[in-house]
Write a structure and sequence with these properties.
4 copies of one chain form a homotetramer.
Chain A: E1 6-15, H1 20-30, E2 34-45, E3 48-59, H2 66-81, E4 84-89, E5 95-100, H3 105-115, E6 122-128, E7 144-146, H4 154-167, E8 172-176, H5 184-189, E9 194-198, H6 210-217, E10 221-228, E11 238-245, H7 252-275, E12 279-282, E13 285-288
Parallel strand pairs in A: 5-6, 5-8, 6-7, 8-9
Antiparallel strand pairs in A: 1-3, 1-4, 2-3, 9-10, 10-11, 12-13
Helix pairs in contact in A: 1-2, 3-7
């Protein structure tokens, strides 16, 4: 509305109880903010009733201090309900590292959407275990780090990757067809902050060569799945999935081409929702307020 | 949660102002209800900022009287904000009349979903200007009224239809490929409560024979549109649309077959959302909290 | 074109060699028929190059005897190429038996489309192990056989089913959510002529309760698969698949409702393609000339 | 099969008569070629019965001279049936010019698919009336011609464009959101060889600002249409269309983002089918053998 207003997002997870929404929205009203968007969901998960909420509110930064709101919210609301919560302010732009290998389609899709302003993030580094994509992404002016796996020393290379991520304060790691299995410690370090794209409709065709598996099984539809990486390969919480139709005329080369399109769009959607703080993780599932 | 709890829905439309959500949710919390689901949307429409909200709340009918809530809500909240609002209680089951002509697919789809419990409504009457479908719907045990147009006296027949609707306290009229243009007075009488299914992706192919128009234009996709009937034919607020792909091999007979499927599912979705009070009408558009 | 013309379909499978199409089409031209539609496909399957063809041709029954064409074709063309082939004439309408259990949606979908003329077949019998759907399908005037499994004697009931199928010269068995596992001998008896609908996107969620499995895995899309029944449950050649999107808001009841729609349409398409002789089975896969 | 074999495509249009398929395939068999793929379609168009065929055949270039096949085919087959026909050989790679304006998504999509080998063509020139995209496409190493419209002299600029197209022997012009209306003489010069992408589901929302029109009408689905450019804006033969769903939450900025994705994929499919000689134009419609 007015140009001087700022926007912030409040994310809440807690056990479901009567009065939560009123307590939260009342707090925000009393603190001179205006809720412009609200999403809420309750679900049963293993005998617990869980509550999830995402609120977007506007405020006048001259009259309202978010720091103080944070302190008051913990004291006056969150502690009563045992809430896990976080406020993201306008300026909290996430830092992304994209890890790629030899195929370019997922990498380029993210970069295009970032350059066009559709993906709102900083991308300080691109990392690849191969050098082949370096020239392709040159025009994006993002440092490209070629970290090859030398003498099969995967651990050593992973250490280099993690060091780079840390030096650049990376919030989100995108595995844009990176093709390397990450160690448990890597995944723990960036838990819930690594998004992988798998080129099948999970849980069908887990593991290597999903398109080959799809051809062998004679399916009429193939898909792609964007999920958070966990220790168990291809088992992490699914953020987004989509499919495309095949016919008997589509050979492996054609399926790969068709698949690229759905991989690109599924990954891009998942990344955008993550960056907009629209994804909640509950055990092995996600709630996506899109 | 507990079996003794009842559920009600609160729908609100008003000009957007700070504090509405807090005011409403606070009121509900103070009145011993628990919000289990909330949807809200704000939009600009012709220089106005409008606010729409749909809340589902639980309450213990032994402790809470909805009548009294209604009175208090008007006094304590709604009047301050100039709200248009309505509370629907569990028992407020809408009464549907289905108007059909000679084709059965939309009629049967609604009846079948109603019998399976998917569509939650009473259907006291089916009306048709032809008798041909009477035997097909016999097993549903719903009175079938054959009201033919005699000597081209359309007005007279429409009067009979309206009389039947009134005698049966009809809330929602479904035009299941009824093929008759309704008079302005009929539409005014049931404003925002007549759902029509048009067999095209509106606004493409307005008017008669949309599939013929689609064939002539050589489109690769055809669709169906469920919308509220207004005085201007095929111009009413759109509730739902969907499409199916064609190829050059699909002739008119095949397109009609394919079209039936999308008509059935689009109409069924629109009817369900209307019955669940998930549709708000804003000028010529709808907001659907699905 | 002229009304006195008849139509027939010629289906061919053989090893791929140069000149097949010319040999076949030349034969048909010399025998005074006119090809109105042709589909052909070649594929590699386990080191063999296989050829599949489906031709629709018109002929004047006063001038051309299909019996004689059949004899000549075997001698002059088919034997040279080692073809498996079949000619279906206009009057070769297939006989269908529908096997159902307690849920009605797949059964009714097939019956509706049959009554409207969209499914071109005879349906002399409906068989169910429960009596609950009998009244629902009464208006279709098809004998409903209630064959319950008594004292857990599954084999005995299956014998009764097979006897009924044989007495009625059944060509195609549709398992419209029949929920019973068929014995190997049943499947062998009707090999490639039993179509099952599985309510998941196979090979994901094989076996019982696929929607429960889908909820547990947190997928964002569910599907349905129509396939030929084989001895290995849910492993037979897939004819058609399709999917629908879920959100976190869709609980089990809602997923079942959404799933019904995709099951109905996937099964109907598979049945229609089978009846139109458009499906070729190659090992565990299908070629569908749709 | 063998590595020494070449492949060619034969495209035929003529009035439908008995024996065409046999005549053509027999000719090809006698001339030592092997048909590996065949598509055929017959349709009624304004009292004429038209026949369309696309054949892919293999031959040994050491034994078969395509030049001679061409001469014989005209004499022995084509002239009898009054065929319009063309043979495309392996080496007949089409030359594309892409015309863009300020938005990059359609341009980049084509270039990226071209670089990955998915689009098989030469792209000797990119032309734009603005210079803004020059740096973005630098890495593709294709000459970028900035031809601005100076002093509103559209004709002069168009002359420059046409001169460039002619100097580069361009076969196909892609209007990748070029935003300029072409003159009749331009369109005549490249008749049936100019593909435009319109960001709506034609014939809905013809003309300027289709997304604005879509918002005003409150549609639940928007689309994109790739069509051959004709003198009548947005009226040319449609090659491909697709759609995406909207909700009331999607504002103009979001619709533009969603729309880009469907524009990109619809345009890419249309271009690929054109380049593979899979599109036949019949009056205002297309037959696409995909």
């Amino acid at each position: 509305m007015s140009r001087q207003l700022s926007t912030a997002k409040l994310l809440i997870t807690c056990q479901d109880k009567p009065g939560i929404i009123a307590a939260v929205t009342n707090f925000l009203a009393l603190n001179k903010t205006n809720i412009v968007h609200a999403d809420q969901h309750s679900m049963q998960e293993e005998n617990e009733s869980l509550f999830f909420m995402r609120l977007v509110f506007e405020y006048d930064p001259k009259k309202v201090a978010v720091d103080q709101i944070q302190q008051s919210f913990e004291k006056e609301v969150a502690s009563d309900y045992g809430m896990q919560w976080h406020i993201f302010e306008d300026g909290d732009v996430k830092k992304i590292a994209i890890l790629a290998s030899k195929t370019d389609h997922c990498l380029l899709e993210i970069l295009w959407r970032w350059r066009s302003g559709e993906i709102n993030a900083d991308i300080p580094i691109i990392i690849s275990n191969h050098s082949s994509l370096e020239s392709e992404v040159k025009s994006f002016n993002i440092p490209f780090h070629h970290l090859p796996i030398v003498n099969n020393q995967k651990e050593k290379q992973e250490e280099q990757v993690i060091a780079l991520l840390k030096n650049n304060d990376i919030d989100l790691v995108i595995l844009a067809r990176y093709m390397q299995i990450l160690s448990k410690s890597f995944i723990d370090e960036y838990q819930n902050n690594i998004i992988n794209i798998h080129h099948s409709f999970l849980p069908a065709f887990v593991g290597a060569d999903p398109y080959g598996q799809a051809i062998d099984r004679g399916v009429k539809v193939v898909g792609a799945t964007a999920h958070y990486a966990t220790e168990n390969l291809d088992q992490g919480p699914i953020i987004e999935q989509d499919v495309i139709r095949l016919t008997h005329r589509d050979d492996r080369r054609k399926i790969i081409e068709l698949g690229k399109e759905v991989e690109r769009s599924v990954l891009a959607r998942a990344v955008k929702w993550h960056l907009e703080d629209k994804v909640f993780i509950v055990g092995n599932k996600t709630i996506v307020f899109n």
